[in-house]
């Protein structure tokens, strides 16, 4: 059967729906395009603003570019000039390089000779090591001499005490002799008076006898004999009295001679006592104490409160302070002084380095009490202390006293390579190098011999040191500088 289709109508509900949908889509698209157009308008306005700003920036950039071109042109010209100078310098460097190459060849030759010298130096070092051992033996001998000197000083002190006792005994004996002479003098006076009385009696007796002989011719011969006997007895008593007076005068003369001899002996003993006392007063632990303008250099490093690295010594620093005070009292001609304390750095103890007038015990107590307030700590930079102290040489310093217990541990004296050595130098090697540097600088710079001026005497006093190297260093330091060294024993 054949299918027939219905002829479509021009407008139907279905088509109307489609049309409405299409219209809605068109409207939506229009709204969307309108919104997009607004956004694009805003974007265009912003772009125009940015464009105007960009034009302004471009004008500024063009202006900057022109100034930069001018500056670059000037710099190009300057660089061109410098390039010419560099080329000239390059030629000069090339010439110097040739010279340096020649010098390098000669340096190589010198290096070869230096190696030879180094071998010789090593041999010399071995010889010096032997000399060092010998020097240590000499140090031991010096310490033995020092101990003997200490014994001599003790003996001198005992002699001074004995001499003082003898002087007192002599003074007491002289007083006794003076008293005996006074008694004898009184006896002699009394006897002289008796003699005068007897002389008067004798004259009276003779006068009476003569008068009696002339006036009493009638008296008997017995009475005359009795009177003569009385006169003879009086003369005998007078002679005996005169003999006694002569004996007393002889005793007085002998006593006077004895007193004169004792006074002379007393004077001699007094001179000896004064000499011994003066010698003992001008010596400290066996060393002669000198100086008019003196600087006292006191180590206040951390070791000054220890007997060794592990053992505290709370009485050590007070002992050091008392020793400084004792040395100050002992110097007979001290007129001016100053005190330096040092550890990692060095500084003046009193004021800022001007000479202080020595006023006896007052100055001693000021130094002692100020030192007692110091707290020892830090390294031992002995170089800084000597450098500060020898600034006073031009101001008249004639003597320096060093109070220390160890070798230097910091300060100048090492090469840059030694400073940054890895591993670091051992402490003993470091101290050895620093000690040698200080001794060399004293000899060549600080305390060198000047025309018309004496060298500064350096006396060293060591405290409770364990290492013999410390004693050897302080002894050598004092010996090199015309001074003395004494080591204080452990507490």
Written description of the protein model:
With 491 residues, this protein is an alpha/beta fold. Among the domains are: 164-277; 284-488, 3-Layer(aba) Sandwich (Rossmann fold), CATH 3.40.50. Helix content is 68%, strand content 9%. It has helices at residues 13-215, 221-281, 316-330, 361-372, 382-389, 416-419, 427-446, 468-480; strands spanning 283-284, 287-288, 293-299, 306-308, 311-312, 336-342, 346-348, 356-357, 399-404, 457-463, 485-488. The strands form three sheets. Strands 3, 6, 7, 8, 9, 10 and 11 form a seven-stranded mixed β-sheet that branches. It has a two-stranded antiparallel sheet with strand order 1-2. Strands 4-5 form a two-stranded antiparallel sheet.
Helices, strands, pairings?
Blueprint: H1 13-215, H2 221-281, E1 283-284, E2 287-288, E3 293-299, E4 306-308, E5 311-312, H3 316-330, E6 336-342, E7 346-348, E8 356-357, H4 361-372, H5 382-389, E9 399-404, H6 416-419, H7 427-446, E10 457-463, H8 468-480, E11 485-488
Parallel strand pairs: 3-6, 3-9, 9-10, 10-11
Antiparallel strand pairs: 1-2, 4-5, 6-7, 6-8
